[in-house]
Amino acid sequence: MSQALLAGLARTTRPHSAVRRFLALDAAVTGANGIAYAVAPEPLGEFLGIDAGLLLALGILLTVYAAGVAWLASRPQPPASAVKLVVDINALWAVLSVVALVAWLEPTTAGLVWTPVQAATVGGFAVLQWAALRAVPASR
Rounded to two decimals, what is the model's pTM? Predict the structure, then answer.
């Protein structure tokens, strides 16, 4: 990803700011998703065709994860190792979402659309965070 495109997406030319902004966006979207799953697992489960118990567990997990990512985004210079962990977790989530869809979920049409869309979104966060992290000077 080019520096100009990355700077435009992050609306900054400072690499640490780009990392922090992409982490913050990830935290906001993941947190909203997690809260929705945790607060309304029954209706969302019925709508998506996914077990409500699974959605509740995922909701709690995602909410806690989002809080950790938000904390990381609040650091003036997030540690590269922690950002790499977030990138790895996001990539793993994206892959496992598709695997679950193919291997064992039996979603409704809405769930069949939602699962790859959220996987692509999370995968997109991983790409943006990785690109922003690579733009940070090696001395930090």
Answer: 0.85
